[in-house]
Write a structure and sequence with these properties.
This protein is α+β, with helices and mostly antiparallel strands. Helix 2 crosses helix 5 and helix 11 crosses helix 14.
């Protein structure tokens, strides 16, 4: 479906969020260099990833579509003209590529995104009931099935315009074989899967990074499957480190890709982003993997790994035992968020932990900073031996740590990171467990807008300081349209109260319910405003507010997926 259903808050009684202006964000830091050679691909450049849509996104998309209906209609009709030459015998793979490029161009040109495209097709079909419009609508429906495209096709059918014969063939491919390439550390891997339209074979090659979570770095699609296999084999043969390339089952291929294809890496190039809608459909064609009980590592496992390391490792010169323990706890604790073994280690993973997680999370003492290089190198060598990695891999890890250590101070001193660290600095002082830190940050990021969601003048303010937190919240309140029934001061008092409750996890039952809700549904940009509105509605009735707030974040048993 085009959008995700999210259960919305009770009927609004006076708060409406102003349509936000898209703020410019800082460019992302460079990620790991791809280990694979690149094959040039053909989709149009300059496209963006297709977003996940919530209720507010739908409202904005509909508003934007109405505001620019004439321009959108003209643009879409010009795109429909490209489908005019495509008859019933058109090649289905060419059609998929053509449609994916159309979606990418629309997403680049129109802020309404995929929903705007689907709604635009409804208007276009009503205005121009013609065969090439039906062809474009049918092609888009294969990637964005839902009410809007169904309405457009139904409207066309009422005028006697049927979709082309190829409609039923799009995406109806037969999976063939699959191979996987993986580096020795498990930091990066690539999966190649072949498919057939009748006797015509093609392949997809998806390169993924596993840190901090599985994500797509590169995508290739080719009718020359041998070329894709040669890329994998050449990379495996020519690199100086040990790599493994193996044929895998189609079930294993699905398991490796099913989550990653929905998470583009920040460095994914536009041409790869354009291929993702096709890749997602291909992954859906792969057979479901058999259920297996994966090994689950616990907090006790991570603590045991730290103790085993300390028992086997003498503190390096100039590093005291507390510093050695601190870095061991940080490195083991980071594995909590991805379900990895406590001894996970790798150059890319180290870059994520030391180059991103630590600068955003921990207020380091001088001793902790000075001991970073030696302590982390000691842990990396011990962890590599626990995993049976060769000496060459240990040397590679040591070189990567030295590189990170040399650049660490410049990264850590970035003034934009100070207001991020303050969200968890008090918790990070007593635990390095990544699971605890992630949940606290998620909760507090919903209690107080993070810096890149604030006006430029408020991005340096520290949310951990109650006075500065009120200034951040005052800016947030200014972006809301408030009813005249209550004064702005009453709204502000309610907002501060709700924010403090979430930040301090008091009452604990509400904090826990919100954490469980965020774990299941992900980020919810309406949550702070909705809870504030409930606080205004219930006034001094604390039990009534708590019950309503818990209902807001508790899944409806009738609609558990909403």
């Amino acid at each position: 479906m085009v959008c995700q259903n999210r259960r919305v808050s009770p009927k609004s009684r006076g708060r409406k969020k102003n349509k936000p202006v898209k703020r410019q964000t800082r460019p992302g830091r460079a990620g790991p260099v791809s280990a694979l050679g690149r094959i040039s691909s053909s989709p149009a450049a300059g496209v963006a990833a297709l977003p996940q849509l919530g209720v507010r996104d739908i409202q904005w998309a509909m508003t934007g579509l109405v505001d620019g209906a004439a321009d959108a209609g003209a643009w879409l009709y010009a795109e429909a003209e490209r489908f005019r030459p495509l008859g019933d015998a058109a090649d289905p793979l060419d059609l998929e590529i053509h449609t994916a490029q159309l979606m990418a161009r629309f997403d680049q040109a129109n802020p309404a995104g995929p929903l705007g495209l689907a709604l635009g097709l409804v208007a276009l079909a009503a205005r121009h009931p013609q065969p090439h419009v039906a062809a474009m609508t049918a092609a888009v429906d294969c990637f964005l099935p839902g009410m809007a495209t169904a309405m457009a096709l139904s409207d066309l059918a009422r005028h006697g315009i049927r979709p082309p014969a190829w409609r039923e063939r799009l995406g109806d491919v037969t999976p063939g074989r699959a191979w996987r390439y993986r580096d020795v550390f498990g930091d990066q891997e690539a999966v190649l899967v072949t498919f057939c339209y009748d006797d015509a074979e093609h392949g997809i090659l998806v390169e993924t990074a596993t840190c901090p979570a599985p994500s797509v770095r590169m995508v290739y699609l080719s009718t020359t499957v041998a070329q894709l296999r040669n890329v994998l084999q050449q990379s495996a043969d020519e690199t100086g480190e040990q790599r493994a390339m193996e044929e895998i089952t189609l079930q294993q291929a699905r398991a490796a890709l099913v989550d990653a294809v929905w998470q583009p890496h920040r460095d994914t190039p536009p041409e790869s982003l354009a291929f993702l809608p096709i890749v997602r459909r291909r992954v859906e064609r792969l057979p479901e993997p058999e259920h297996t009980d994966h090994v689950r590592y616990t907090r006790a496992d991570r603590a045991a790994a730290v103790e085993a390391f300390l028992a086997a490792t003498a503190p390096p010169p100039g590093v005291d035992g507390d510093v050695l323990r601190f870095w061991a706890q940080v490195l083991a604790g980071c594995t909590a968020t991805g379900g990895s073994a406590p001894t996970r280690i790798g150059p890319v993973w180290l870059g994520c932990v030391l180059g991103e997680h630590v600068p955003r999370t921990f207020e380091l003492t001088a001793a902790q900073r000075a001991g970073l290089g030696c302590a982390v190198t000691a842990w990396a060598g011990w962890a590599a031996r626990q995993r049976g990695l060769p000496d060459a891999a240990v040397d590679q890890l040591a070189a990567r740590i030295a590189e990170i250590d040399q650049k660490f101070d410049a990264v850590y001193a970035d003034p934009d990171l100070t207001p991020m660290r303050c969200y968890v600095s008090d918790v990070a002082a007593v635990t390095a467990d990544g699971g605890d830190l992630r949940r606290v940050f998620a909760l507090r990021a919903h209690a107080v807008p993070i810096p890149d969601r604030r006006p430029p003048t408020g991005r340096s303010l520290l949310a951990s300081d109650p006075v500065e937190r009120r200034r951040i919240l005052a800016d947030e309140l200014e972006s809301w349209e408030l009813s005249k029934d209550l004064s702005a001061l009453d709204w502000f008092d309610a907002l501060v109260s709700v924010s403090d409750q979430l930040w301090n996890q008091d009452p604990p039952e509400l904090a826990q319910a919100v954490l469980d809700y965020l774990d299941g549904d992900g980020s919810d940009g309406d949550l702070l405003g909705d809870l504030t509105e409930l606080a205004v509605d219930y006034g001094g009735d604390a039990p009534g507010y708590l019950a309503a707030a818990l209902a807001r974040v508790t899944p409806d048993p009738e609609y558990p997926d909403r």
